[in-house]
Amino acid sequence: MDTKKELIGDFKNAGRKWRQSGDPEEVRVHDFLDKKLGKAIPYGVYDMVNNQGWVSVGIDHDTAQFAVHSIRQWWKQMGRRRFPRAGELLITADGGGSNSHRSRLWKVSLQALADELGLSLHLCHFPPGTSKWNRIEHRLFSFITQNWRGRPLVSHQAVVSLIASTTTRTGLIVKAALDTNHYETAVKFTDEQLNRLRLTPHSIHGDWNYNLTPRRKN
Fold it and tell me: For the structural domain made of 2-212, what CATH number should be given?
């Protein structure tokens, strides 16, 4: 899993596409945020085994709750049909950003997801400086970028449509949807709240690798 940020509007997008001669598409020279249109936050979940991806396109803030909700949507829309007998999920992610291994909100939100889905979640974060080995970069986001090259991302719906139309010769399938939820920032949790999590660090680099198991419901 990983995330990107894209400005919405008639901004230049790297790459080229064919248009009728004498009919160029005009774009802005400078990429300053358009406050009315805002930005898009594509958060992707990539299934390495089946070469399938899910992308939630956020419109608000890239928070840990948004990241975890993207996992939730992937599971509901794609994952549970593909893995009906699953009792656990292995999730690999970068070490910073909304899914930072230091984020308390990230871990609390994951615990809530584990409780909701009844799945054990195994988290493995890439160490600092190694995010380029994240498979989602090479197998999902790179092809999305190729698909919308040379096209201004003029609306959130355009972003969703371009992502969902991404395919490859190897059979990549991508589904996408707009996430219109609003996510609070600067949400804090106490040590006591963190201690209530069913979090078990791995024996090797437990700060980067850990399990979250569902809590029993009363």
Answer: 3.30.420
Contacts of 72 (CB under 8 A, 6+ apart): 113, 116, 117
The candidate with the shortest Cα–Cα distance to 57, out of 182, 183, 178, is 178
Distance of CA 84 to the CA centre of its chain: 22
Picking from 33, 27, 23, 34, the residue whose alpha carbon sits closest to that of residue 10 is 27
Q: Tell me 149's DSSP state.
A: T
What are the structural domain ranges in the chain? 2-212
**pTM for this predicted structure:** 0.90
Q: Is 85 helix (H, G, I), strand (E, B) or coil?
A: coil
Amino acid at 43: Y
**pLDDT tens-place values along the chain, 218 residues long:** 999 999 999 887 777 666 667 666 777 766 788 888 999 999 999 999 999 999 999 999 999 999 999 999 999 999 999 999 999 999 999 999 999 999 999 999 999 999 999 999 999 999 988 988 999 999 999 999 999 998 899 999 999 999 999 999 999 999 999 999 999 998 999 999 999 999 999 999 999 999 999 997 64
Count the neighbouring beta carbons within 10 Å of the beta carbon of residue 88: 12
